[in-house]
Amino acid sequence: MAQLIDIVRVVVGTEYLTATVQIAEDAPLMTSEDLEGTTRVYNLLPTIIDHACVGDVGSTFKDCMGDTELAHLLEHVTVELLARTNLVNEIVAGRTWRELAYDRTYSIRFDCVDDVLVAAALSSAVWIMDWAFTGGEGAVPDVNATVEGLVELIMSLSDGQGAQDQRGQGLSDGEFGFTIDDSPQNGFEGYEQPYDGGYDDGYYDEQPYDDWQEEDLDRGPRMSRKII
What we know:
The protein is globular. Helix content is 26%, strand content 18%. It has helices at residues 35-44, 70-85, 115-132, 143-158, and strands spanning 5-12, 16-23, 52-54, 91-98, 105-111, 179-181, 223-227. The chain has 228 residues and is of the alpha+beta class.
């Protein structure tokens, strides 16, 4: 199998970092298609099941982890890594939606306390997912070392001032292996309508991305919050 998840593009907005990710053609789209891989992720990050997850299945990620999109799991892995750094606000939030009902491309949006930290955490989460869903071969990812590396990265850039002091600084195109767009708008060019419904139904909300309000974080099935 080729790389499980390819980060195609990252957009850094005024409040959010939004990534376009593509799942490999020969990879599963749902966690239920590879429960061994899903279990490997759980064994590395068991507290992931306690994330609040607003959706139509239940109130926590535990209720849907066994049958959800890999992109949704990637969102939660990223949120967990961010929360473990202790460099973010009290609540870390993310949202995942599918761009088209028939393709393998998803968008994942995170609260962007620091673009370098979020991008690095996402890149680390992709690496963890790749290990878990390609047979678990090789060295088992060291989550503590990964988190320490994220903290050291931000401290080296902020000179000890913390992640939030470095918002918008130091993130260069290609630094994490994907394309960076630091345009100020909170959305993709050509992706103005957010996904707002059940899996694979092809339904899109008519509300433009730029018009989302704070309460929209609680809409739709692809939302996570990690309470520290």
